[in-house]
Amino acid sequence: MQKTGPLTGVKVIEMCHVMAGPTCGRMLADMGADVIKLERVPDGDDTRRMLPPDIDGEPAAFMMMNCNKRGIAVDLKNPRGKEVLKKMLSSADVVTENYRADTMAKLGLGYDDLKDINPALVYCAISGFGRTGPYASRGGYDLIAQGMSGLMSFTGEGPGRPPVKVGAPVCDITAGIIAAMGVLAAYVHRLKTGQGQFVDTSLYEAGITHSYWQSAIALATGIAPGPMGSAHPLNGPYQAVETADGWITFSGANTRNWLRLLDLLGLSDLAEDPRFKENAGRMENLEELSELLSAEFRKKPREQWLAELEEAKIPAGPVFDVNEMHADPHTLARDMVVEVEHDRIGAVKTIGCPVKFSETPSAVHGPAPLYAQHTREVLAEFGYGADEIDSLVADGAVIAHEVE
Questions:
Q1: Which of 366, 404, 393, 260 is CA-nearest to residue 36?
Q2: Which listed residue (30, 75, 142, 172) is catalytic?
Q3: Number of domains into which the chain is organized
Q4: Rounded to two decimals, what is the model's pTM?
Q5: pLDDT per residue over 200-246, tens digit each?
Q6: How far apart are CA 75 and CA 397, in angstroms?
Q7: Could you confirm whether 172 is annotated as catalytic?
Q8: Are residue 171 and residue 286 in the same domain, yes or no?
Q9: What distance lies between CA 204 and its chain's CA centroid?
Q10: Is 389 in the same domain as 265?
């Protein structure tokens, strides 16, 4: 797998499973890092068992999260397996892990152990609640983090309705992205000083970062905002509306766009209506305003409204389902759905790289690995001879599967 990108040459050992940690690893791999995914013995990442769906027997969820990585399997309960990992970490640039707080330390592989043998190592721990505080020992799941971070209290259709989880696992994914940001910041520090460090983030904190607007309101007023459907808590109108044949979103959330919207809808008289003249009034009377606007939008089909809104220079867009998003020409132009050649099943599609670089292009160069696919290759790179690898396999310290 020939890698390109600004992180080419950076070696990352990923000891992560399911979502947050693998998101971090995928971000780094997409930017060129050599991410070596260390999976558990005997059955690997739990995402391998998130079935259905699958593509010819390969789990779609695992393939999505682990493109661009190489895969090995090491038994950390086996003393020789533990020594293999320790040798790898002694020369790696970065290690990421999302175990419970004391797991790595109990193995003698915590940051305090590893910094003595590799002072330049960037060690990133991703957990449910972080490594300090009263909840540090708790396990973490996206749903729990969404509830405790406040996200579920202001997501949903409106007051009095049940709390709603954001459809995407935003705490998991955001924790992975924040972790990648932390790794990169620590790596910049290492380039300046030669010194590695411990990087610590969590699903809980990732959820809290999504509450910027609602926290601003609560900290200023003492009132916790509730759910508002698709509307904005500070500016309006800025929401989804139903047309004659589907849903669109639009922004009338500043004076210029608000007046343009009124002209387009034939509601110019509302410009001087004291209920709606200023943003504060529009927010106070948002339910009534939404009813007035929705009545107009339901008169024409989606595509006609989108064309008229664009001509009027009012920001707007369709509400796509995921298949529509994948097929949209802009998605394809930005290489956000790409095809890679899987080593067993052939061509598969995956999500592309969200950051573009002019001089060091990121790319999806390879598929997710088969279980233990690269064990022999990787161990050879870390100085193990063929006989030593055979011995480790025979002893059960590592698993090595060959691609058929």
A1: 366
A2: 172
A3: 2
A4: 0.94
A5: 999 999 999 999 999 999 999 999 999 999 999 999 999 999 999 99
A6: 5
A7: yes
A8: no
A9: 14
A10: no
